[in-house]
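Replying to the earlier thread about multi-chain prediction with a worked example.

Input:
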Amino acid sequence: MAVAIIKVVDIIKIIIIYLVQQPASPPVSHAHSHSLLLRSPSYSHGLSTSHSLSLTAVSPTSPSFLKNSTSASPNRRWLRLLLRRFPTSVKLRPSLKFWLKWLKKVIKFSFAVVKPLPLTSLLLHLEMGELAADKHVKYIISVEKKKDSFESVVMEHLRLNGAYWGLTTLDILGKLDAVDEEDVISWILKCQDESGGFAGNIGHDPHVLYTLSAVQVLALFDKVDILDADKVSNYIVGLQNEDGSFSGDIWGEVDTRFSYIAICCLSILQRLDKINVDKAVEYIVSCKNLDGGFGCTPGGESHAGQIFCCVGALAIAGALHHVDKDLLGWWLCERQVKSGGLNGRPEKLPDVCYSWWVLSSLIMIDRVHWINKDKLVKFILDCQDMENGGISDRPDDAVDVFHTYFGVAGLSLLEYPGLKPIDPAYALPVDVVNRIFFSKK
Amino acid sequence: MESDEGDEQQQEAERLPLSQRPEWSDVTPIPQDDGPNPVVPIAYKPEFSETMSYFRAVYYSNERSSRSFQLTKEAICLNPGNYTVWHFRRQIIETLHADLQDELAFVGRIAKSNSKNYQLWHHRRWVAEKLGTGAVNKELQFTKKMLSLDAKNYHAWSHRQWVLQALGGWEDELDYCQMLLGEDIFNNSAWNQRYFVVTRSPLLGGLIAMRDSEVNFTIEAILGNPENESPWRYLRGLYKDDTESWINDPRMSSVCLKVLSTKSNYVFALSTLLDLICHGFWPSEEFREAINALNTPDSGPLDSDLGRAICRVLECVDPLRCNYWLWRKSKLPLTVSSQ
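Result:
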């Protein structure tokens, strides 16, 4: 009986896939880790070079995200013949939609006796909304232009961060050319202080937070070369403390966020050797907790944002072997709640920004298949403002550029179609990162 | 935080524009330069732009006077995220040797509505550091007050940990954690702090000395709410670097068995039992019976290997993470089976 249902359900599944699905993009799991794989010695350790250069699934434990939805090839020819007789378009017609809804109910009922995995994925694909990419582009450009709105003015001191969030999102959506490159670059250079660091905006004090954003935005435009790399790196080098930690600026606040910023920024400037990398790694490792996660300082509670910073820093520094990947991977996948969203700590609410911090961490330690990706995609899409563009922290909340960036970046990590792949450690598009490291001398 | 923010709010209500204040008549305000062609003219509060324009004037001229000190206060109240204003305020404090206790009080008054503001917390730490050990009680009181508003405020916890390590005050910390956990046993921050105290307090004797009582407390918490992630992780942490003692402590497996027998909220009990088995624990027949009794759908013929059986149940009852449980199953040592 169970076998008969499986057969019927399989046939229905094949028909639905064929009728409804957009043309599948080729499986590109680990396109994100492609650049990182080639760079970081800890990845190539134990892997053959052909393995690490492959764009398809690297390890047997990480199946391709798209595998389940593109499995129909042997039957497709038969279906093509059938559908030529009864032509249909890819878009759903009202009557077809009604039929499918009823069918969903039948399939859901069959769940009880059938292994749910491929069908859950299928149903979620049917229920899922779309990414309103154009609306998000419009939203970001409007925020960029509305410099005199109250919201814009109260955030003016961190406009450089805002530029990074907005412009990286545009690049992922393939619309970086919507802004005036020269305008942006000349403004960024005005934010540089004589110490070499960058401020959040003209007339403010330098801080590593904005220094990283400045370098990242210049990287988007392939203009990192216009900087005096030694000058900028000296600013950062001067902020490393004796225990290996980094201060944010001259006022001495210490946080593993700044360790990540220092290592990431210096790596982009190709000046990583100027700091004491071993000491920096030692400090980060001292912030590791018993659950495998990391806090802001030694003993600080594990938090997804801090974990991203520590894992990212270790990845760039080639020191990922310090991470207990299985333990941390489990902690991270426990962040997924029933709605499909991710929280940052146990018993907290889900938030779209954790789609980035948890997800990128999982990818860097090669454990991303431990979460339910389909449900997370659905959660992010539900956080969109479909009318005005932008993404919020949770469904139905107000949007902002910060969450718009993390939502889109998260979808990119989840290989949502139509988005440029993003590097999980550098938080920049993969082609930008490759350009930095592979097209130079 | 004895007085609330009434002072700050009252000042705003009675506020005289800076351009009308005689003590500011000699200063030319500097407007924000957003580059050429901003698209839409002013749509925000005029007092905000005025305050910031005057701030820019004194900041660029590096005027460290009492009037600019007062101005930074107004600017901070209007926009507490503006880190440059905080920086300049600190420079003025140093130049004028301003009263640091007053400064703590000021931060205390605006903390409630800015509880997650990085600049505020860093400023507080800077002042407290200058005051030294004399500030201990005030800082512990302050963080306690902030945590009573939000018991998981990451900044507050980070500040509290810094206070304990830099200035002392460990005496009542374990009791404080106890109290917070009494209010909300699910508070992961409080569990983390408990571990912090148990492992780092100079007054308690260290992890191994505290282990026994801590295990008992944690087990009680688990039995009260077995779906609570934090105490399970805490329990594991109590045996950090000592796996042998961990698998040999009969309380570890017995708490799993107790939870399994209730047949509800047993996901963490199962995963802990799985961990124990993977590290060499030999489960007795009771465990097999308890897992059989769970009677989940799709269990089919139960695996002779208890580890595999546990994984199959977990794939079923925790489907969100079924790939993780599949992987755990693939990693099971092949020789493990129940006696």
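Chain B touches chain A through 61 residues (CB under 8 Å).

Feel free to reuse this layout for your own posts.
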